[in-house]
Design goal:
By secondary structure, this protein is an alpha/beta fold. 31% of the residues lie in helices and 28% in strands. Helix 5 crosses helix 10. It comes from Streptomyces inusitatus.
C-alpha cells in the first residue's frame, strides 16, 4: 500500500481550519494533512504543532490554487470563503471530496449548480450550517426521543468577541449584506420573514434574554426536512456573554426547543442548551472534522458523488460522543421559546 494522500485544508492556519486539523490529528494520528494559507510562516507553525503535516501557500484567485505541481490530495476542506469556487473545481477535476462551510443559505446556488453539472465527479458536503452542522446534529439527537416533531426552535447566542477571526467576521458581514430577512418554516411553508416577524428574544441559562432575530441558515431547511416538523425557526443574538471572563474565551449557548408527541402519541417537549465554555470555535471545528472524516471514508461507508449535508452523512449520536470529548455539554433549560 502506498503512502496515504494528504487532506488539503484551505485556510488551515485560521481558527476554524487549525481547529479542524487538530481534531483530525487527534482522531487519526497518521493522517497526512496539508495546511494551506496565504501566510506560509503561520501555516508552518500550525503544521509543526500537528506533526505529519506540511505547509503550503495558497492563492484562491488561481485555478490551480497556486499549489506546487505534482501534489496529490485525498480531499479538499475549504475553511474559508471560496468565492471563485476554484477550490471546488480543483476537487472536481481530481475526483476529490470537497467540504464547504462559508457559503451560507443565500449563496449556495453556485455550489449546487457546479455539483449538479458534474454530479459524478466528487462528493460535496455543504456544511454552511451554524457551527458547521453541530447545532443541527445536536437537535436531531434530541429529536430521536419523539414520535412526532411539530416544532423545532433554535436560539444561538454568540459573544461579540467570538465571531471566529477575520474570516468568520467577514462571513457574518457578507451574509447580513445578502439579506436581512430570516427563513422559517411555518405550517409546512418555507417563509421569508422581516421586521417584527423576524425579531425574537433568545433566552439564556441564567434567565436573561438577548434580543435577536430569525436568520437565513441551512439549519432551518435541514431540520425541517429531516424531522418533518411543519414549524422550524433559528434565531440568533449577538452580544456580551454572561459567562465571559477577562482573558478567557467567551462561552456559547445554543438553545434547542422541540415540541411534538412521544412514541405513544402523548404531548412531549424538550428544552435544552448546548454549551461550550470556549465558544463557537470548538463546535465549528467539530462539525468540519466530522464532515471531513466521513468524506474520507474513515468512518462509515464510502460517500457517493453528489451534494450532501451534515445530517445526511453523520450519525447524531456519534457526533454527540465527539462533542463530549471536546468539552461540550447539554444542560436542561427552563421554560420555552414561545410561539413560532
Amino acid at each position: 500500500m502506498g503512502q496515504p494522500k494528504s487532506v488539503l485544508i484551505l485556510g488551515g492556519s485560521g481558527q476554524a481550519g487549525a481547529g479542524t486539523a487538530a481534531l483530525l490529528r487527534r482522531w487519526h494520528p497518521t493522517l497526512p494533512l496539508t495546511i494551506a494559507g496565504r501566510d506560509l510562516d503561520r501555516a508552518r507553525r500550525v503544521a509543526d504543532e500537528l506533526g505529519t503535516a506540511t505547509a503550503v501557500t495558497v492563492d484562491l484567485r488561481r485555478g490551480d490554487l497556486g499549489l506546487p505541481p505534482g501534489r496529490d490530495h485525498s480531499a479538499v476542506v475549504a475553511a474559508l470563503w471560496d468565492e471563485r469556487l476554484h477550490g471546488l473545481r480543483y476537487a472536481q477535476q481530481r475526483g476529490l471530496p470537497y467540504l464547504s462551510v462559508s457559503s451560507g443559505l443565500v449563496e449556495i446556488a453556485p455550489e449546487v449548480v457546479a455539483g449538479t453539472q458534474r454530479a459524478s465527479a466528487s462528493p460535496i458536503l455543504m456544511a454552511s450550517h451554524w457551527c458547521a452542522g453541530s447545532a443541527t446534529l445536536a437537535a436531531l439527537y434530541s429529536a430521536r426521543e419523539f414520535g412526532r416533531v411539530d416544532t423545532v426552535r433554535i436560539g444561538a447566542v454568540l459573544d461579540e468577541l467570538d465571531t471566529g477571526g477575520p474570516a468568520g467576521a467577514a462571513d457574518l458581514e457578507r451574509w447580513s449584506t445578502a439579506t436581512t430577512a430570516g427563513l422559517v418554516r411555518r405550517d409546512s411553508v418555507f417563509t421569508w420573514v422581516n421586521g417584527p416577524d423576524a425579531q425574537a428574544d433568545v433566552p439564556l441559562l441564567d434567565g436573561t434574554v438577548r434580543p435577536g432575530q430569525s436568520i437565513a441558515v441551512l439549519d432551518v431547511t435541514s431540520l425541517a426536512l429531516a424531522t418533518g416538523a411543519p414549524n422550524v425557526r433559528f434565531d440568533f443574538a449577538l452580544g456580551a456573554s454572561p459567562g465571559r471572563s477577562d482573558g478567557e474565551p467567551a462561552p456559547v449557548e445554543v438553545r434547542i426547543d422541540l415540541d411534538g408527541t412521544d412514541s405513544a402519541g402523548a404531548p412531549f417537549s424538550i428544552s435544552r442548551c448546548l454549551v461550550h465554555p470556549a465558544g463557537q470555535r470548538p463546535l465549528t471545528a467539530l462539525g468540519m472534522a466530522l464532515g471531513a472524516e466521513r468524506l474520507l471514508g474513515l468512518r462509515g461507508e464510502a460517500v457517493p458523488p453528489g451534494i450532501h449535508t451534515p445530517e445526511s452523512l453523520i450519525d447524531p449520536a456519534y457526533a454527540m460522543e465527539r462533542l463530549a470529548e471536546i468539552g461540550g455539554v447539554f444542560v436542561d433549560a427552563p421554560g420555552g421559546h414561545g410561539r413560532l
